[in-house]
Amino acid sequence: MKGLFTFIEQKEAQTQQAKALVLPLLQFLEPDRPWSSKNFWTLYQARPSLEPVVQQALEHLRQYAIPLLEYEEQLSSLDLEAFSEAMSEFERRFWQEQYAQAKSLPMNTPMYLCGLHSLEEPDVRVLVQQRLWDVEIIASALGVPPDCPTCKRGIQRIVLEDIKRAKTLA
pTM higher than 0.70 for the full model? Predict the structure, then answer.
C-alpha cells in the first residue's frame, strides 16, 4: 500500500508542476475558468506548435489529471455528499489502475532520465550508439534543454557507459 501512496504523491507533484506550466496558456482561452477539460483539449490539439516541455506537461496532464477533471465535471450536478462518494470511488479505482499499469511494465521499459523533460534512456542510447557523444548536441536533437542539469547528467551517464563498453570490446 505504501508503494501506491508514494506513486500517487509523485504523480500529483508532477501534475502540479505541469499545471503551473500550462495554466497561463489556458488562461488565454478562458480567463474566468481556465482549468476545464474543454480548454485543455483545445490546447492539447495545438501541442505540435508548442515548446517540447509544454508538450510533455500536456501529455502528463492527459494521463494523470484530465480523466479526474472530466469525471468531476460530469458529477457537477450532484449534491455534495453524492459528489464526494462518487469522486472518491473513481479516484481510488483510477489510481489503483494507474499504479498497476506502472508496476506491470516490463523491467526494460524506458525510464526517464529527466522527469521534467521526459528524457528517456532509449532515445539517448540510439544517438550514443551512433557514436554521437556530445551532450549538447544529443540534448538539442531530443528537444530537451542542454542546460538542464538532470538531462545533462543522464546523457553523460549513457555516453560514459557506451565509451566504457566500446573500450572493453576493442
Answer: no
